[in-house]
Specification:
Length: 325
């Protein structure tokens, strides 16, 4: 069966890195043909058409069609996977309320269009920032879609954490298991080394406490800003790569003996307020994310998780106040 993948913000820089990977089969696997649906704002439709021409020119055997639209109802019609990348970035002088309001104007209507038009098995990954709260807005506009189908991306943070630890311990990334990002995709996120394992032993016991606290956590949490500083533009290829990883694992399952990180609607596990879209340690089984249960959380981790979850609760309360959820 051909899978329809809708990508919003398709003419943006993440879109440009993402679409070719989807069309080449890396999102869903080498046996799954795909149709791409590109959603853009009217001013960017022409640029999306240019990207579509380039996709054609790759002659990808799995790519069975490309649709381009500025109408969410059309773009999400029959969609099986939705990658919500396009968002309103914060610009100079913009207050947080303005940012949330502007994004509410994007993610509310897109959530409703998904509710009304997408396929029954729709899976949604929100990449556009503030990703967790944009996912919450979209989810609340889609009451007929099971809440668990709305997720937000913390896989880039997860991959950044793997890479930093790999460099520190001089081990290949493949030797690191059970990394976790908790909370919000923001500077308050908590990359957790107390459950991560390297060579079967707890990672936190293999690094200095100061490095963990003063280097590792802030480097991972502020990596997005460091990339903007260095590149003059935010992460694009690495963000697209993380989106591919997230959906690939969601559909195909996580490897035995390991887990990953994804922001999914909380069921109250680990004291995280029910309903907010928070990052957890997760496994994917039979096409569904499940939160890894039974981890012991010490006082240090508790404080960090609570701080990030506190920020998510503030964002939720702010969008509630604005009538966006
Ligand atoms: N969760 C994560 O780990 C990461 C999230 N991001 C976020 O991803 C988002 C996209 O980043 P870039 O591609 O670099 O931005 P970009 O500015 O290059 O592209 C965004 C695209 O979205 C389009 N767009 C805006 N409103 C739209 C709407 N209502 N419907 C459809 N398309 C719309 C714009 O026309 C533009 O082409 C940003 O919000 C960025 O902060 C970026 C990196 C990592
Ligand atoms: O701040 C941004 O736009 C980019 C971002 O989320 C990241 O790189 O983690």
């Amino acid at each position: 069966m051909t899978v329809k993948v809708t990508v919003t913000g398709a003419a943006g820089q993440i879109g440009y890195a993402l679409l070719f990977r989807i069309a080449s089969g890396q999102l869903l696997g080498a046996d799954t043909p795909v149709t791409l649906s590109l959603l853009e704002i009217p001013q960017a439709v022409k640029a999306a058409e240019g990207t579509a021409m380039e996709l054609d020119d790759c002659a990808f055997p799995l790519l069975r069609g490309i649709e381009i639209s500025d109408d969410p109802a059309k773009a999400f019609d029959g969609a099986n996977v939705a990658l919500l990348v396009g968002a309103r970035p914060r610009t100079a002088g913009m207050e947080r309320g303005d940012l949330l309001q502007a994004n509410g104007g994007i993610f509310g209507p897109q959530g409703k269009a998904i509710n009304d038009h997408a396929a029954d098995d729709i899976r949604v990954l929100v990449v556009g920032n503030p990703a967790n709260t944009n996912a919450l807005i979209a989810r609340s506009a889609a009451p007929d879609v099971p809440a668990e189908r709305f997720t937000a991306m913390t896989r880039l943070d997860h991959n950044r954490a793997l890479s930093q630890l790999s460099a520190k311990l001089r081990v290949p990334v493949s030797e690191i298991k059970k990394m976790t990002i908790w909370g919000n995709h923001s500077a308050t996120q908590y990359p957790d080394l107390f459950h991560a394992e390297v060579g079967g032993k707890i990672a936190a016991e293999q690094v200095e406490e100061e490095w963990l606290r003063d280097t590792f956590i802030p480097t991972v949490a502020k990596r997005g800003a460091a990339i903007i500083e260095a590149r003059g533009a935010s992460s694009a290829a690495s963000a697209a790569n993380a989106a591919v990883d997230h959906v690939h694992d969601w559909v195909n399952g996580t490897p035995e003996g390991d887990w990953t990180s994804a922001a999914i609607p909380s069921d109250g596990s680990y004291g995280v307020a029910e309903g907010i879209i928070s990052s957890f340690p997760v496994v994917s089984k039979n096409g569904r994310w499940e939160i890894v249960q039974g981890l012991e959380i010490d006082a240090f981790s508790r404080g960090r998780i609570d701080a990030s979850v506190g920020e998510l609760i503030e964002e939720r309360d702010a969008v509630k106040e604005l009538g966006l959820i």
